[in-house]
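2024-03-11 09:14:02 DEBUG pipeline.ingest accepted 1 chain
2024-03-11 09:14:02 DEBUG pipeline.ingest length=123
2024-03-11 09:14:03 DEBUG pipeline.predict start
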Amino acid sequence: QVQLVESGGGLVQAGASLRLSCAASGGTFSSVAMGWFRQAPGKERVFVAAITWSGSSSYYADSVKGRFTISIDNAKNTVYLQMNNLKPEDTAVYYCAATRSRLVRLSGVYDYWGQGTQVTVSS
């Protein structure tokens, strides 16, 4: 049973940084891509970033490009999302997810999801 556990959310001021972590367990991940999605109150869940398990390819939403960095530590089975220069519009619950599909920007192709971690950015 694959489990994904996010951590690292919190309340910060605009311009600050946070690093989210997603620890994966219970499966083999060599052919998996890992993604981060976020959902603000009253809005749909949207793609933020994704990375192949090898770390060779990464993908970003335009809204976070240049501010967020996704990375992976294969030895720890952990994916990170470094978020810099946070803005109030980044406020959302952030979810980690795993997929074997190449369509990493689509939430519907992800098979496993974490419970989410709240990120709140005050102005």
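2024-03-11 09:14:41 DEBUG pipeline.report The first strand starts at residue 3 and ends at 7.
2024-03-11 09:14:41 DEBUG pipeline.predict end
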